[in-house]
Design brief:
Elements lengths: L6 H14 L18 E5 L2 E4 L4 E4 L2 H5 L8 H13 L10 H12 L6 E5 L2 H20 L5 E5 L8 H5 L4 H4 L9 E4 L17 H16 L4 E6 L15 H11 L3 E5 L23 E4 L11 E5 L1 H5 L23 H15 L2 H19 L6 E7 L2 E9 L4 E2 L2 H13 L2 E2 L1 E2 L10 E4 L7 H19 L1
Parallel strand pairs: 3-14, 5-6, 5-7, 7-8, 8-9
Antiparallel strand pairs: 1-2, 2-3, 4-10, 9-10, 11-12, 12-13, 12-16, 15-16
Helix pairs in contact: 3-11, 4-11, 8-9, 12-14, 13-14
Length: 462
Amino acid sequence: MDGTFSENDLSRVVAADKAHVWHHLSQHKPYETSDPRIMVEGKGMKVWDQHGKEHLDGVSGGVWTVNVGYGRESIANAVRDQLVKLNYFAGSAGSIPGALFSEKLISKMPGLSRVYYANSGSEANEKAFKMVRQIAHKRYGGTKHKILYRDRDYHGTTIGCLSAGGQEERNAQYGPFAPGFVRVPHCLEYHAADQGAPVENYGEWAADQIEQVILREGPDTVGALCLEPVTAGGGVITPPIGYWQRVSEICKKYDILLHIDEVVCGVGRTGTWFGYQHYGIQPDMVTMAKGVASGYAAISCLVTTEEVFNLFKSDASDPLDYFRDISTFGGCTSGPAAALENMRIIEDEGLLENTTKMGDYMLDQLRGMMDRHAIIGDVRGKGLFLGAELVSDRDSRTPAAEKQVGAVVADCMAQGVIIGATNRSVPGYNNTLCFSPALIAKKDNIDHILSAVDSALTRVFG
Protein backbone atom coordinates (compact mmCIF):
# COMPACT_ATOMS: atom_id res chain seq x y z
CA MET A 1 0.00 0.00 0.00
CA ASP A 2 1.11 3.57 -0.54
CA GLY A 3 0.39 4.67 3.02
CA THR A 4 -2.23 7.28 2.09
CA PHE A 5 -4.22 6.38 5.21
CA SER A 6 -2.51 6.55 8.59
CA GLU A 7 -3.05 3.89 11.22
CA ASN A 8 -5.34 6.26 13.10
CA ASP A 9 -7.36 6.95 9.96
CA LEU A 10 -7.82 3.21 9.36
CA SER A 11 -8.83 2.62 12.97
CA ARG A 12 -11.57 5.18 12.48
CA VAL A 13 -12.64 3.48 9.24
CA VAL A 14 -12.87 0.10 10.99
CA ALA A 15 -14.87 1.60 13.83
CA ALA A 16 -17.27 3.29 11.41
CA ASP A 17 -17.65 0.09 9.43
CA LYS A 18 -18.44 -1.96 12.55
CA ALA A 19 -20.92 0.64 13.76
CA HIS A 20 -22.81 1.30 10.54
CA VAL A 21 -22.12 -1.00 7.55
CA TRP A 22 -24.32 -4.04 6.91
CA HIS A 23 -22.11 -6.40 4.90
CA HIS A 24 -23.39 -8.69 2.17
CA LEU A 25 -23.74 -12.40 2.89
CA SER A 26 -22.39 -11.94 6.41
CA GLN A 27 -23.34 -12.98 9.93
CA HIS A 28 -22.36 -9.97 12.02
CA LYS A 29 -22.32 -11.57 15.46
CA PRO A 30 -18.57 -12.35 15.20
CA TYR A 31 -17.84 -8.65 14.62
CA GLU A 32 -18.78 -7.97 18.22
CA THR A 33 -15.39 -9.41 19.19
CA SER A 34 -13.36 -9.11 15.97
CA ASP A 35 -12.93 -6.66 13.12
CA PRO A 36 -14.32 -7.12 9.61
CA ARG A 37 -11.79 -7.23 6.81
CA ILE A 38 -11.60 -3.97 4.89
CA MET A 39 -9.93 -3.87 1.52
CA VAL A 40 -7.99 -0.65 1.05
CA GLU A 41 -6.17 -0.85 -2.27
CA GLY A 42 -5.87 -3.00 -5.39
CA LYS A 43 -3.36 -3.23 -8.22
CA GLY A 44 -3.30 -5.82 -10.97
CA MET A 45 -4.34 -9.06 -9.27
CA LYS A 46 -3.42 -8.01 -5.74
CA VAL A 47 -5.38 -6.32 -2.97
CA TRP A 48 -4.30 -5.02 0.44
CA ASP A 49 -6.39 -4.98 3.60
CA GLN A 50 -6.43 -2.53 6.51
CA HIS A 51 -3.45 -4.29 8.09
CA GLY A 52 -1.36 -3.84 4.96
CA LYS A 53 -1.52 -7.58 4.24
CA GLU A 54 -1.18 -8.42 0.56
CA HIS A 55 -3.55 -10.92 -1.04
CA LEU A 56 -3.47 -12.48 -4.50
CA ASP A 57 -7.07 -12.37 -5.67
CA GLY A 58 -8.13 -15.64 -7.29
CA VAL A 59 -11.81 -14.72 -7.59
CA SER A 60 -11.72 -11.27 -9.24
CA GLY A 61 -13.18 -9.15 -6.48
CA GLY A 62 -14.86 -11.94 -4.55
CA VAL A 63 -17.73 -12.34 -7.01
CA TRP A 64 -16.21 -12.87 -10.47
CA THR A 65 -16.21 -9.21 -11.47
CA VAL A 66 -12.81 -7.49 -11.86
CA ASN A 67 -11.95 -9.15 -15.18
CA VAL A 68 -9.16 -6.77 -16.24
CA GLY A 69 -7.64 -6.36 -12.80
CA TYR A 70 -7.36 -3.51 -10.31
CA GLY A 71 -5.94 -0.03 -10.75
CA ARG A 72 -6.78 0.56 -14.42
CA GLU A 73 -6.25 4.30 -14.76
CA SER A 74 -7.56 4.40 -18.32
CA ILE A 75 -10.97 3.14 -17.18
CA ALA A 76 -11.03 5.55 -14.25
CA ASN A 77 -10.10 8.40 -16.60
CA ALA A 78 -12.79 7.43 -19.09
CA VAL A 79 -15.37 7.46 -16.31
CA ARG A 80 -14.10 10.76 -14.88
CA ASP A 81 -14.15 12.48 -18.28
CA GLN A 82 -17.66 11.26 -19.02
CA LEU A 83 -19.02 12.26 -15.62
CA VAL A 84 -17.76 15.80 -16.08
CA LYS A 85 -19.34 16.01 -19.53
CA LEU A 86 -22.67 14.33 -18.68
CA ASN A 87 -23.07 12.09 -15.66
CA TYR A 88 -26.68 11.06 -16.11
CA PHE A 89 -29.85 11.33 -18.07
CA ALA A 90 -32.84 9.00 -17.93
CA GLY A 91 -32.69 6.03 -20.28
CA SER A 92 -35.70 7.33 -22.20
CA ALA A 93 -33.06 9.39 -24.02
CA GLY A 94 -29.74 8.24 -25.41
CA SER A 95 -26.15 9.12 -24.56
CA ILE A 96 -22.89 9.04 -26.48
CA PRO A 97 -21.26 6.23 -24.46
CA GLY A 98 -24.53 4.31 -24.36
CA ALA A 99 -24.83 4.37 -28.16
CA LEU A 100 -21.17 3.59 -28.79
CA PHE A 101 -20.96 0.73 -26.30
CA SER A 102 -24.15 -0.85 -27.66
CA GLU A 103 -22.61 -0.79 -31.14
CA LYS A 104 -19.38 -2.34 -29.85
CA LEU A 105 -21.18 -4.97 -27.80
CA ILE A 106 -23.47 -6.04 -30.62
CA SER A 107 -20.42 -6.45 -32.89
CA LYS A 108 -19.38 -9.31 -30.57
CA MET A 109 -22.81 -10.96 -30.53
CA PRO A 110 -23.91 -12.06 -34.03
CA GLY A 111 -27.65 -12.56 -34.33
CA LEU A 112 -28.48 -10.08 -31.55
CA SER A 113 -29.18 -6.40 -32.07
CA ARG A 114 -30.66 -4.50 -29.13
CA VAL A 115 -29.23 -3.47 -25.74
CA TYR A 116 -31.36 -2.50 -22.74
CA TYR A 117 -29.32 -0.88 -19.94
CA ALA A 118 -29.75 -1.49 -16.22
CA ASN A 119 -27.41 -1.54 -13.25
CA SER A 120 -27.19 -5.09 -11.86
CA GLY A 121 -27.47 -8.68 -13.03
CA SER A 122 -30.58 -9.21 -10.95
CA GLU A 123 -32.23 -6.22 -12.58
CA ALA A 124 -31.27 -7.33 -16.08
CA ASN A 125 -32.84 -10.73 -15.47
CA GLU A 126 -35.98 -9.10 -14.07
CA LYS A 127 -36.26 -7.12 -17.30
CA ALA A 128 -36.06 -10.33 -19.32
CA PHE A 129 -38.74 -11.98 -17.18
CA LYS A 130 -40.99 -8.95 -17.64
CA MET A 131 -40.51 -9.07 -21.40
CA VAL A 132 -41.52 -12.73 -21.48
CA ARG A 133 -44.65 -12.00 -19.47
CA GLN A 134 -45.60 -9.02 -21.61
CA ILE A 135 -45.07 -11.02 -24.81
CA ALA A 136 -47.37 -13.69 -23.38
CA HIS A 137 -50.11 -11.10 -22.96
CA LYS A 138 -49.51 -9.41 -26.29
CA ARG A 139 -49.37 -12.58 -28.41
CA TYR A 140 -50.83 -15.50 -26.47
CA GLY A 141 -53.64 -14.15 -24.34
CA GLY A 142 -51.41 -14.44 -21.27
CA THR A 143 -51.10 -18.22 -21.42
CA LYS A 144 -47.48 -18.66 -22.60
CA HIS A 145 -46.06 -17.01 -19.50
CA LYS A 146 -44.12 -19.69 -17.61
CA ILE A 147 -40.36 -19.38 -17.26
CA LEU A 148 -38.27 -22.49 -16.83
CA TYR A 149 -35.05 -22.36 -14.80
CA ARG A 150 -32.50 -24.99 -13.86
CA ASP A 151 -31.65 -26.68 -10.59
CA ARG A 152 -28.42 -25.21 -9.13
CA ASP A 153 -28.49 -22.12 -11.39
CA TYR A 154 -28.71 -18.65 -9.85
CA HIS A 155 -30.15 -15.52 -11.44
CA GLY A 156 -30.20 -12.83 -8.77
CA THR A 157 -31.38 -11.54 -5.43
CA THR A 158 -34.81 -10.02 -6.06
CA ILE A 159 -37.97 -11.96 -5.29
CA GLY A 160 -38.56 -12.43 -9.02
CA CYS A 161 -35.04 -13.73 -9.57
CA LEU A 162 -35.19 -15.95 -6.49
CA SER A 163 -38.39 -17.38 -7.96
CA ALA A 164 -36.13 -18.57 -10.78
CA GLY A 165 -33.39 -19.63 -8.39
CA GLY A 166 -32.20 -23.22 -8.28
CA GLN A 167 -30.40 -22.95 -4.94
CA GLU A 168 -32.61 -23.76 -1.96
CA GLU A 169 -30.35 -22.22 0.67
CA ARG A 170 -30.23 -18.93 -1.20
CA ASN A 171 -34.02 -18.98 -1.37
CA ALA A 172 -34.70 -20.09 2.21
CA GLN A 173 -36.88 -17.75 4.31
CA TYR A 174 -37.67 -15.44 1.38
CA GLY A 175 -40.85 -17.04 0.07
CA PRO A 176 -43.56 -17.08 -1.00
CA PHE A 177 -42.25 -16.62 -4.50
CA ALA A 178 -43.79 -15.43 -7.75
CA PRO A 179 -45.90 -18.01 -9.59
CA GLY A 180 -45.13 -19.23 -13.08
CA PHE A 181 -41.51 -20.26 -12.56
CA VAL A 182 -40.78 -23.97 -13.06
CA ARG A 183 -37.58 -25.86 -12.29
CA VAL A 184 -35.83 -28.29 -14.65
CA PRO A 185 -33.04 -30.72 -13.62
CA HIS A 186 -29.35 -29.82 -13.50
CA CYS A 187 -26.80 -31.15 -16.01
CA LEU A 188 -23.90 -32.10 -13.72
CA GLU A 189 -22.49 -35.20 -15.38
CA TYR A 190 -20.31 -36.01 -12.35
CA HIS A 191 -23.50 -36.68 -10.37
CA ALA A 192 -25.47 -38.32 -13.16
CA ALA A 193 -26.08 -41.34 -10.93
CA ASP A 194 -28.03 -39.12 -8.53
CA GLN A 195 -30.50 -38.55 -11.35
CA GLY A 196 -30.65 -42.19 -12.42
CA ALA A 197 -29.16 -41.07 -15.72
CA PRO A 198 -27.31 -43.15 -18.33
CA VAL A 199 -23.53 -42.88 -18.60
CA GLU A 200 -23.61 -42.61 -22.39
CA ASN A 201 -25.18 -39.61 -24.10
CA TYR A 202 -25.78 -37.93 -20.75
CA GLY A 203 -25.87 -34.46 -22.34
CA GLU A 204 -28.80 -35.31 -24.58
CA TRP A 205 -30.50 -37.14 -21.73
CA ALA A 206 -30.18 -34.10 -19.45
CA ALA A 207 -31.61 -31.83 -22.14
CA ASP A 208 -34.47 -34.26 -22.75
CA GLN A 209 -35.44 -33.86 -19.10
CA ILE A 210 -36.22 -30.25 -19.94
CA GLU A 211 -38.52 -31.40 -22.70
CA GLN A 212 -40.30 -33.68 -20.26
CA VAL A 213 -41.00 -30.69 -18.00
CA ILE A 214 -42.29 -28.70 -20.98
CA LEU A 215 -44.66 -31.52 -21.95
CA ARG A 216 -45.84 -31.87 -18.35
CA GLU A 217 -46.54 -28.14 -18.03
CA GLY A 218 -47.93 -27.81 -21.56
CA PRO A 219 -45.86 -26.22 -24.35
CA ASP A 220 -48.53 -23.55 -24.85
CA THR A 221 -47.85 -22.28 -21.29
CA VAL A 222 -44.05 -22.05 -21.45
CA GLY A 223 -42.61 -18.74 -22.69
CA ALA A 224 -38.89 -18.96 -21.94
CA LEU A 225 -36.07 -21.09 -20.66
CA CYS A 226 -33.46 -19.26 -18.55
CA LEU A 227 -30.06 -20.95 -18.10
CA GLU A 228 -26.48 -20.06 -17.26
CA PRO A 229 -24.06 -21.22 -20.00
CA VAL A 230 -21.87 -22.62 -17.23
CA THR A 231 -23.56 -22.91 -13.84
CA ALA A 232 -21.59 -20.63 -11.53
CA GLY A 233 -22.41 -20.54 -7.81
CA GLY A 234 -24.12 -23.91 -8.02
CA GLY A 235 -20.79 -25.68 -8.53
CA VAL A 236 -19.09 -24.46 -11.73
CA ILE A 237 -20.99 -26.96 -13.86
CA THR A 238 -19.86 -27.16 -17.47
CA PRO A 239 -22.49 -28.53 -19.86
CA PRO A 240 -21.96 -32.09 -21.11
CA ILE A 241 -21.42 -32.90 -24.78
CA GLY A 242 -24.60 -32.53 -26.83
CA TYR A 243 -26.51 -30.66 -24.13
CA TRP A 244 -26.72 -27.16 -25.55
CA GLN A 245 -27.44 -28.29 -29.08
CA ARG A 246 -30.38 -30.38 -27.86
CA VAL A 247 -31.62 -27.56 -25.61
CA SER A 248 -31.63 -25.21 -28.59
CA GLU A 249 -33.60 -27.73 -30.67
CA ILE A 250 -36.18 -28.10 -27.92
CA CYS A 251 -36.71 -24.35 -27.60
CA LYS A 252 -37.23 -23.99 -31.33
CA LYS A 253 -39.57 -26.98 -31.41
CA TYR A 254 -41.92 -25.47 -28.84
CA ASP A 255 -41.50 -21.76 -29.70
CA ILE A 256 -39.78 -21.01 -26.38
CA LEU A 257 -37.45 -18.05 -25.96
CA LEU A 258 -33.92 -19.03 -24.96
CA HIS A 259 -32.62 -16.64 -22.30
CA ILE A 260 -28.96 -17.11 -21.39
CA ASP A 261 -27.72 -15.55 -18.17
CA GLU A 262 -24.12 -14.43 -18.80
CA VAL A 263 -23.82 -12.33 -15.63
CA VAL A 264 -20.81 -14.41 -14.56
CA CYS A 265 -19.53 -15.87 -17.84
CA GLY A 266 -19.90 -12.82 -20.04
CA VAL A 267 -17.19 -10.53 -21.44
CA GLY A 268 -14.29 -12.94 -21.58
CA ARG A 269 -14.47 -15.08 -18.46
CA THR A 270 -14.57 -18.39 -20.36
CA GLY A 271 -12.18 -17.41 -23.16
CA THR A 272 -14.83 -16.22 -25.61
CA TRP A 273 -16.76 -12.97 -25.37
CA PHE A 274 -19.73 -14.95 -24.06
CA GLY A 275 -20.02 -18.44 -22.67
CA TYR A 276 -22.78 -19.54 -25.03
CA GLN A 277 -20.45 -18.90 -27.98
CA HIS A 278 -18.55 -22.09 -27.17
CA TYR A 279 -21.57 -24.17 -28.13
CA GLY A 280 -22.77 -22.87 -31.49
CA ILE A 281 -26.23 -21.80 -30.35
CA GLN A 282 -28.29 -18.65 -30.92
CA PRO A 283 -30.09 -17.20 -27.89
CA ASP A 284 -33.05 -14.86 -28.06
CA MET A 285 -32.05 -12.94 -24.92
CA VAL A 286 -28.73 -12.55 -23.11
CA THR A 287 -28.20 -10.85 -19.76
CA MET A 288 -24.84 -9.68 -18.42
CA ALA A 289 -23.30 -7.57 -15.64
CA LYS A 290 -20.18 -8.18 -13.46
CA GLY A 291 -17.33 -8.21 -16.03
CA VAL A 292 -19.03 -5.79 -18.43
CA ALA A 293 -17.10 -2.93 -16.81
CA SER A 294 -14.91 -5.02 -14.47
CA GLY A 295 -16.47 -3.36 -11.44
CA TYR A 296 -15.28 0.14 -12.34
CA ALA A 297 -18.89 1.30 -12.71
CA ALA A 298 -22.30 -0.25 -12.21
CA ILE A 299 -23.80 -1.55 -15.44
CA SER A 300 -25.83 -4.46 -16.71
CA CYS A 301 -27.37 -5.21 -20.08
CA LEU A 302 -30.21 -7.22 -21.50
CA VAL A 303 -29.47 -7.94 -25.16
CA THR A 304 -32.14 -9.28 -27.51
CA THR A 305 -32.70 -10.23 -31.11
CA GLU A 306 -34.44 -7.79 -33.43
CA GLU A 307 -37.38 -10.23 -33.48
CA VAL A 308 -37.90 -9.83 -29.74
CA PHE A 309 -37.47 -6.06 -30.01
CA ASN A 310 -40.04 -5.84 -32.80
CA LEU A 311 -42.67 -7.53 -30.63
CA PHE A 312 -42.81 -4.28 -28.66
CA LYS A 313 -43.17 -2.00 -31.69
CA SER A 314 -46.69 -1.17 -32.76
CA ASP A 315 -48.78 1.42 -34.56
CA ALA A 316 -51.74 0.40 -32.44
CA SER A 317 -53.58 3.00 -30.40
CA ASP A 318 -53.10 1.00 -27.19
CA PRO A 319 -51.01 3.26 -24.92
CA LEU A 320 -49.65 0.20 -23.07
CA ASP A 321 -48.30 -1.53 -26.17
CA TYR A 322 -44.56 -1.05 -25.52
CA PHE A 323 -42.03 -2.21 -22.90
CA ARG A 324 -43.07 -0.05 -19.96
CA ASP A 325 -39.97 -0.35 -17.84
CA ILE A 326 -37.29 1.93 -16.47
CA SER A 327 -34.01 1.47 -14.62
CA THR A 328 -33.12 4.74 -12.93
CA PHE A 329 -29.41 4.08 -12.82
CA GLY A 330 -29.47 2.47 -16.25
CA GLY A 331 -29.22 6.11 -17.29
CA CYS A 332 -25.80 6.60 -15.67
CA THR A 333 -23.24 7.27 -18.38
CA SER A 334 -20.32 5.99 -16.29
CA GLY A 335 -21.29 2.36 -16.97
CA PRO A 336 -21.05 2.31 -20.76
CA ALA A 337 -18.02 4.64 -20.66
CA ALA A 338 -16.21 2.16 -18.40
CA ALA A 339 -17.46 -0.78 -20.44
CA LEU A 340 -16.08 0.65 -23.69
CA GLU A 341 -12.61 1.03 -22.19
CA ASN A 342 -12.87 -2.36 -20.52
CA MET A 343 -13.60 -4.00 -23.86
CA ARG A 344 -10.75 -2.11 -25.53
CA ILE A 345 -8.33 -3.44 -22.93
CA ILE A 346 -9.53 -7.02 -23.47
CA GLU A 347 -9.01 -6.65 -27.22
CA ASP A 348 -5.72 -4.76 -27.22
CA GLU A 349 -4.07 -6.93 -24.58
CA GLY A 350 -5.26 -10.23 -26.09
CA LEU A 351 -7.01 -11.24 -22.88
CA LEU A 352 -9.38 -13.73 -24.52
CA GLU A 353 -6.39 -15.64 -25.80
CA ASN A 354 -4.66 -15.35 -22.43
CA THR A 355 -7.78 -16.59 -20.66
CA THR A 356 -7.87 -19.70 -22.84
CA LYS A 357 -4.15 -20.37 -22.42
CA MET A 358 -4.02 -19.78 -18.67
CA GLY A 359 -7.34 -21.54 -18.14
CA ASP A 360 -6.11 -24.66 -19.91
CA TYR A 361 -2.94 -24.57 -17.84
CA MET A 362 -4.81 -24.17 -14.57
CA LEU A 363 -7.27 -26.93 -15.45
CA ASP A 364 -4.41 -29.29 -16.28
CA GLN A 365 -2.60 -28.46 -13.03
CA LEU A 366 -5.74 -28.95 -10.95
CA ARG A 367 -6.27 -32.36 -12.54
CA GLY A 368 -2.66 -33.23 -11.74
CA MET A 369 -3.34 -32.27 -8.14
CA MET A 370 -5.92 -35.05 -7.97
CA ASP A 371 -3.03 -37.55 -7.85
CA ARG A 372 -1.88 -36.05 -4.55
CA HIS A 373 -5.27 -35.36 -3.01
CA ALA A 374 -7.95 -38.05 -3.06
CA ILE A 375 -10.33 -35.45 -1.65
CA ILE A 376 -10.59 -33.91 -5.15
CA GLY A 377 -13.28 -35.84 -6.94
CA ASP A 378 -13.78 -33.77 -10.08
CA VAL A 379 -12.22 -30.76 -11.81
CA ARG A 380 -14.15 -28.81 -14.42
CA GLY A 381 -14.48 -25.40 -16.00
CA LYS A 382 -13.98 -23.18 -19.02
CA GLY A 383 -11.29 -20.53 -19.46
CA LEU A 384 -10.46 -18.83 -16.17
CA PHE A 385 -13.63 -20.08 -14.55
CA LEU A 386 -12.85 -23.36 -12.81
CA GLY A 387 -14.06 -25.57 -10.01
CA ALA A 388 -12.68 -28.49 -7.99
CA GLU A 389 -15.34 -30.60 -6.32
CA LEU A 390 -14.21 -32.10 -3.01
CA VAL A 391 -15.54 -35.52 -1.97
CA SER A 392 -15.02 -37.65 1.12
CA ASP A 393 -15.07 -40.78 -1.03
CA ARG A 394 -14.30 -40.94 -4.75
CA ASP A 395 -16.12 -44.21 -5.37
CA SER A 396 -19.42 -43.02 -3.93
CA ARG A 397 -18.75 -39.37 -4.84
CA THR A 398 -19.98 -38.36 -1.40
CA PRO A 399 -19.54 -34.58 -1.01
CA ALA A 400 -17.00 -33.32 1.49
CA ALA A 401 -18.44 -31.40 4.44
CA GLU A 402 -19.08 -27.72 3.78
CA LYS A 403 -17.19 -26.83 6.98
CA GLN A 404 -14.06 -28.55 5.65
CA VAL A 405 -14.38 -26.84 2.28
CA GLY A 406 -14.64 -23.53 4.10
CA ALA A 407 -11.53 -24.42 6.06
CA VAL A 408 -9.59 -24.75 2.80
CA VAL A 409 -10.73 -21.29 1.72
CA ALA A 410 -9.78 -19.85 5.13
CA ASP A 411 -6.35 -21.51 5.01
CA CYS A 412 -5.68 -19.99 1.59
CA MET A 413 -6.76 -16.59 2.88
CA ALA A 414 -4.31 -16.93 5.76
CA GLN A 415 -1.63 -17.60 3.15
CA GLY A 416 -2.57 -14.40 1.34
CA VAL A 417 -4.51 -16.07 -1.50
CA ILE A 418 -8.24 -15.49 -2.04
CA ILE A 419 -10.27 -18.34 -3.54
CA GLY A 420 -13.98 -19.07 -3.46
CA ALA A 421 -16.28 -21.99 -2.75
CA THR A 422 -19.93 -22.89 -3.09
CA ASN A 423 -21.51 -22.12 0.26
CA ARG A 424 -25.00 -21.91 1.72
CA SER A 425 -26.45 -22.59 -1.73
CA VAL A 426 -27.26 -26.24 -2.52
CA PRO A 427 -28.01 -28.44 0.52
CA GLY A 428 -25.45 -31.23 0.78
CA TYR A 429 -23.51 -30.06 -2.26
CA ASN A 430 -21.64 -26.97 -1.08
CA ASN A 431 -18.38 -28.72 -1.79
CA THR A 432 -16.75 -27.05 -4.79
CA LEU A 433 -13.73 -24.77 -4.66
CA CYS A 434 -14.12 -21.94 -7.17
CA PHE A 435 -11.41 -20.13 -9.12
CA SER A 436 -11.87 -17.08 -11.34
CA PRO A 437 -8.67 -15.04 -11.44
CA ALA A 438 -8.59 -11.92 -13.57
CA LEU A 439 -8.15 -12.39 -17.30
CA ILE A 440 -4.68 -10.81 -16.98
CA ALA A 441 -3.40 -13.78 -14.93
CA LYS A 442 0.08 -15.08 -15.73
CA LYS A 443 1.57 -18.50 -15.08
CA ASP A 444 3.24 -17.42 -11.85
CA ASN A 445 -0.11 -16.12 -10.55
CA ILE A 446 -1.76 -19.44 -11.32
CA ASP A 447 1.10 -21.35 -9.70
CA HIS A 448 0.83 -19.17 -6.59
CA ILE A 449 -2.90 -19.87 -6.28
CA LEU A 450 -2.45 -23.61 -6.81
CA SER A 451 0.44 -23.81 -4.34
CA ALA A 452 -1.77 -22.27 -1.66
CA VAL A 453 -4.58 -24.71 -2.44
CA ASP A 454 -2.18 -27.65 -2.38
CA SER A 455 -0.89 -26.65 1.05
CA ALA A 456 -4.39 -25.96 2.39
CA LEU A 457 -5.71 -29.36 1.25
CA THR A 458 -2.80 -31.06 3.00
CA ARG A 459 -3.42 -29.19 6.25
CA VAL A 460 -7.20 -29.65 6.25
CA PHE A 461 -7.45 -33.22 4.98
CA GLY A 462 -3.95 -34.62 5.54
